[in-house]
Amino acid sequence: MTASSPYITTPDLEARFGRDFLLNATDPTNTGEVNTAKVERAIADATSLINSYLGKRYLLPVPNVPDALQRIAADLVRYFLFDSPSEDISKRHDAAQRWLRDVSTGVVSLGLPESKAPASAVGAVVVDGPPRLFTRKTMEGY
Questions:
Q1: What is the rounded CA–CA span in Å between residue 118 and residue 135?
Q2: Residues 119-129 pLDDT 10s
Q3: Distance CA 17, CA 129 (A)
């Protein structure tokens, strides 16, 4: 899995929401075919958004996708599929973003390996180098 690998796939979405949902969201002219390009774009948008939150705390790519993260990805994709999402879909999108914010701050854990934060220096700033060549004393009289 690469850093841009999706957290959910089109078959996962179909299993979760049904083919009728995908047709309703992507086939306004009733051709009977799911617009896979639109679905893939929504999946890419959701993946990018999720990575922006997870990247603060976890090593990307994640080694495995927890069920909770797949559910969040599904809610985000569903939101991105509609130009004017319903109130329920919008609420689930907002809840997903709150959950991702909690993940990024450590309130919620995915149980995945966390990235190593750079060690921060505690205390005073230390500067090391050769002694000064030009000081007030050595420049006296110039």
A1: 36
A2: 555 666 677 77
A3: 64
